[in-house]
Design goal:
Length: about 130
């Protein structure tokens, strides 16, 4: 397991863990210190999807997103006209949306591929 963060740093993002920091996540049988609940949740999600190889093959720590870079307004996707392109209405009244994210490199297996984001009840590894 590649621990690129170093002593005193968050295993997930590399930022300093507060001196009184007690948050950890178990990765490959070893408790790893993390700086915040966000990094703890991200690491647990990675582990929960059996993607721990992400940590084995990464080249550096995972940077936190820039708070100023919020991207497009998510409310755009609430527009029924836009949803027609990617939302399927199911017989039970629920909806299923599929997205193709192109040119992603999977850090766990180092291959370039598209990925699908599945609805929570059907969440599976995309590859």
């Amino acid at each position: 397991m590649l621990d690129v963060a170093g002593a005193g740093a968050c295993f997930h993002c590399g930022e300093l863990v507060p001196p009184d920091g007690i948050l950890t996540v178990d990765i490959a049988g070893t408790p790893r210190r993390v700086c915040c609940r966000g990094c703890q949740a991200a690491a647990e999600a990675i582990r929960g999807q059996d993607l721990e190889n992400f940590y084995r093959y990464r080249d550096g720590v995972t940077p936190k997103p820039d708070a100023a870079d919020t991207g497009p307004d998510p409310a755009l996707y609430d527009d029924p006209a836009i949803q027609e392109e990617f939302v399927e209405r199911l017989p039970d009244g629920s909806c299923k949306a599929e997205f193709i994210l192109e040119n992603l490199v999977c850090p766990a297996c180092r291959r370039r591929r598209g990925a699908r984001l599945w609805p929570p009840q059907r969440r599976r590894r995309p590859h």
